[in-house]
Amino acid sequence: MKPAFHYGAALLSGSALTLAYAPFNFWWLTLPCFALFSYLLLGTSPKQAAKTGMAFGLGWFGAGISWVHVSIAEFGGLPLIGSIGLMLLLCAYLALYPTFFAYALQRSFSRSIWPLSAAALWFVVEWFRSWMLTGFPWLSIGYSQTNGPLAGWLPVIGETGLSALLVLCASALALGVKQRNYYFALSPALITLITGAVFDRIDWVTPTNKTASVALVQGNIKQELRWVPEQDRPTMEKYLRMTEAHWRNDIIVWPEAAIPKLEPLARNYIRELDELAIAANTSLITGIVNYNFETSEAFNNVIVVGKQRQNDTQGHYRYLHVNRYAKHHLLPIGEFIPFEDWLRGIAPLFDLPMSSFSRGDYQQANLMANGYRLAPALCFEIAFPRQIGANLHKNSDMIITVSNDAWFGHSHGPAQHMQIAQVRAKEFGMPVIRATNNGITGIIDASGNIQSLLPQFEAAVLTDSVSLVTGNTPYRWLGDLPMWIFTFLALVSRFFFSRTSTHQ
């Protein structure tokens, strides 16, 4: 195959992966797309494999996270060529991971254990992507399977494990076709599909008789107005007005930074919320930015006002009270500026309001709201299963995630974000409530199914009952331990087969 067609096919296979994720949901595309990529790697030198991996990665991320361009172009204050350049730079960085995967696979692993090696290596490379430079695990391929039979694997080995399993099946398919051994090509995929369908019929957790009525308020505030000082009061009045008819619910949730004033400057308003919530016998959770004027530290926070416990008769809010959560995983550029001293002032993008936060602890106490315990994830953090797992306790009732996806307009970014939340629910067997500024706001049950949903770009309130559950999924209990054992055994096998081939 000519180089232009070879690398073009790799680019196309990566680009087509976008259709496997929400909102398109052609989940079945993942296997043939990755199988084509794997097939293209066969017979290449390590250097050619690296180029193939780069082409695949540029297609994968270039199409898959093209929504990042919306925030850079519309709110970053850069000319078109600058925003495209930054977008390409981000995609090129992310493409380094499949590049390294392809190079290492061809450089160090025997064809005899190629599918196992590919799965183990992919797991390690994606693990690095999840924490390097604070981590950007978006578009991990396991997320594409929420609507397919392989979703049954999510509560067993998690999304990270399912990604590795997909790579194993795709590599076996490619190798089997190359060797014309179609039994070898199809067997892993068929076994994985059937087993996933069986797993999906198992009830890993058990519903209790306990429910919580929740109201999720979607204010639909335009992004360009969110940090305009003159809009502070109208925004806060809008959220109060939208909440008036819903105080009867057990829990009311406002989205990320719904209160646009800094917490020290909004204390009177928050005390008013505290009094209104306690008078209505309920609890209100909202996002807000806290700024310490003495230390110049800013935190992206979620706080609870009103009832903390069910038998409370008075509100518990005071400034810096402990019933709050500070975001740990900060988004580069959006919430912290790498090499800040150099980049500040180069372009408006690097000087956006609220773009330099301090980091909260990795593990924090659950939020307590009207007697319910909620494990929080602020916006982007819902993409980090290890952090979610570390903050789930035996008595946690549900996961709460608040976000503002107005940055990404009418792109496919918000749908991908919602899909990630669905995967967290299914992995951990835990309902997820998600409140956003302009969508997608919704409630996900413990099986990962969307229970109720608000349309995007509308100011509306979603009210529903959340059914609580008891029990653990295997993934919540063991985390990534089975996958690390598998990876260790695959590496041991690599050295065993290497020595065997040397002696022959």
From TrEMBL:
Transmembrane segments: 26-42, 54-72, 78-101, 113-132, 152-175, 182-199, 477-497
Similarity comment: family membership: Belongs to the CN hydrolase family. Apolipoprotein N-acyltransferase subfamily.
E.C. code: 2.3.1.269
Topology relative to the membrane: Multi-pass membrane protein
Record protein name field: Apolipoprotein N-acyltransferase
Leading EC class: transferase
PANTHER family named among the record's database cross-references: APOLIPOPROTEIN N-ACYLTRANSFERASE
CDD domains the record matches: ALP_N-acyl_transferase
Role of this protein: Catalyzes the phospholipid dependent N-acylation of the N-terminal cysteine of apolipoprotein, the last step in lipoprotein maturation.
Pathways involved: Protein modification; lipoprotein biosynthesis (N-acyl transfer)
Main localization category: membrane
Signal peptide (from-to): none
Alphabetical UniProt keywords: Acyltransferase, Cell membrane, Membrane, Transferase, Transmembrane, Transmembrane helix
Domain (CN hydrolase): residue spans on this chain: 217-468
Protein localization: Cell membrane
Organism name: Fluctibacter corallii
